[in-house]
TrEMBL record:
Gene3D superfamilies: Glutaredoxin (3.40.30.10)
Family the UniProt entry places it in: Belongs to the ArsC family.
Keywords of the record: Oxidoreductase
The keyword rRNA processing is assigned to this record: no
PANTHER family the record matches: ARSENATE REDUCTASE
Protein name: Arsenate reductase family protein
Source organism phylogeny: Bacteria, Bacillati, Actinomycetota, Actinomycetes, Kitasatosporales
Length: 119
């Protein structure tokens, strides 16, 4: 199990607290420092069952600078979204937990963290 975190994020710290309380075996990836490649983002999206715009933090300054709210959300533009997430990792919603069963979850609540643990 791996968790993508931003240490400054309270939801990430809460997720780590739950994982530690449950004695989970996990690896921390500080994705702002160890930036995921476009391929890794595509793999996580597949595991999440989501599209790149589903995990994009559109209120971030970089999103506004890029004009993401105006970008089409369709298959033709999917790679453009993935490339933007790789180039600006702060845009990636967090935390993301990759579960042991090959799935993943955006773990913004304690329930979501526990869901990942149960997989």
């Amino acid at each position: 199990m791996e968790i993508w975190i931003n240490p400054a994020c309270s939801k990430c710290r809460s997720a780590l607290t739950v994982l530690d309380a449950e004695g989970a075996d996990y690896t921390v990836r500080r994705y702002l420092e160890d930036v995921p490649s476009p391929e890794e983002i595509r793999e996580v999206l597949e595991r999440l069952g989501l599209e790149p715009w589903d995990i994009t933090r559109t209120q971030e300054a970089a999103a506004k600078e890029l004009g993401l709210k105006e970008w089409p959300k369709d298959a033709e533009h999917r790679d453009r979204w993935v490339e933007a997430l790789a180039a600006h990792p702060k845009l990636i919603q967090r935390p993301i937990i990759t579960a042991d069963d090959g799935t993943a979850v955006v773990a913004r609540s304690e329930e979501a963290v526990r869901d990942a643990l149960s997989r």
